[in-house]
Design brief:
This is Cytochrome C biogenesis protein transmembrane region. The protein is 65% helix and 0% strand. It has one domain. The chain contains 13 helices and no strands.
């Protein structure tokens, strides 16, 4: 029988020796890494070259310029465009969830038995399921609201504000700024620099952390300006059907995390548990990896959407790579 390795986030009353020694250095280097990624990031590459080509190949037509031909076509478009948007700036932070999913205790050692293999896969998929639960609640609710309100939402507005800053980008800046700071806070909490918001809740609801992280990922749709998602949003709003809006937004979110979930399963099982054992070798390593993952993606998300994006419209300055 496969042996489960139960690993959870460090408890607030754990011994100081369980924490990494140079927490300040970890924080500074993680923020700098996030800033560097935000500076070098090419939205043209990930949105157009990768995103559009993936969608065009899977759908078999020009996804950006061909009208969505009905409810079924829109349903397929929702998942495919979500998958195509995996590496966009409005979704890449989802990969930061791999560390807490590993630490949740769902991944464990492998052996050669077919029976234990089935159990092993089920246990590995469990943290993905909890993550998806939080994501589905948020994305589904927003899809229903979006289909009902339509163009009354800033995300579908064609107006401009200030130096030609579209309201949908202003909404993106606000939403991703909040989400980015939330990720940074979770990273600092892993190092116990700030209080862990799940310290007490996790004792009664051990999967609460993953559900909330999933909710943050679902919140990506509230700010997402990705052109293919914008096209899907417009179509869902035209239907005026909240149930359909909820369904396609959920599919969009599931598409967004599909590659991340596959990567997580591969890392756990292709290494026959070595990845899990390395990640969870000790409380100090758990805290370090979790903190780095959250702070890097959080810093990137905040800096990209709240400093680099406004700078493109004349609000402040942010260093950008020459290819941008």
């Amino acid at each position: 029988m496969a042996r489960i390795i139960p690993v959870s986030a460090p408890s607030p009353d754990a011994h100081a020796a369980d924490l990494p020694r140079r927490r300040g250095l970890i924080i500074v280097l993680s923020v700098l890494a996030g800033a560097l990624i935000a500076s070098l990031w090419s939205f043209r590459l990930v949105d157009s070259v990768i995103g559009d080509n993936v969608a065009n190949t899977l759908l078999g037509y020009d996804a950006k310029h061909t009208e969505i031909g009905g409810l079924i076509a829109g349903t397929v478009f929702a998942f495919v465009s979500g998958l195509a948007g995996t590496f966009t700036a409005c979704n890449i932070a989802a990969f930061g969830a791999i560390a807490p999913m590993t630490n949740a205790g769902g991944a464990h050692r492998a052996d050669s038995s077919d029976t234990s293999g089935r159990l092993r896969i089920g246990a590995t998929l469990r943290p993905i399921g909890w993550l998806a639960l939080g994501m589905i609640v948020v994305s589904g609710a927003y899809g229903a609201v979006g289909a009902a309100l339509g163009e009354r939402l800033p995300q579908l507005s064609t107006a401009t504000a200030g130096s030609s800053l579209p309201p949908r980008l202003l909404q993106a800046s606000i939403v991703f700024g909040v989400i980015g700071l939330a990720f940074v806070y979770l990273g600092l909490a892993a190092l116990r620099v700030v209080p862990d918001p799940f310290a007490r809740l996790s004792s009664r609801f051990p999967n609460a952390r993953l559900v909330v992280i999933g909710a943050l990922i679902g919140g990506f749709l509230i700010g997402r300006p990705f052109p293919l998602f914008h096209k899907l949003f417009e179509y869902a709003a035209e239907t005026r059907n909240p149930l359909y809006g909820a369904a396609v937004f959920i599919l969009q979110s599931l598409g967004n995390i599909t590659l991340m979930a596959v990567l997580f399963v591969v890392l756990v099982h292709a290494t026959r548990g070595r990845f899990t054992r390395w990640m969870t070798a000790g409380p100090s390593r758990v805290a370090t990896i979790t903190a780095v993952a959250f702070i890097v993606v959080g810093a990137f998300t905040f800096l990209y959407w709240d400093l680099r994006l406004p700078a493109r419209f004349g609000y402040g300055w942010f260093p950008v790579a020459p290819w941008e």
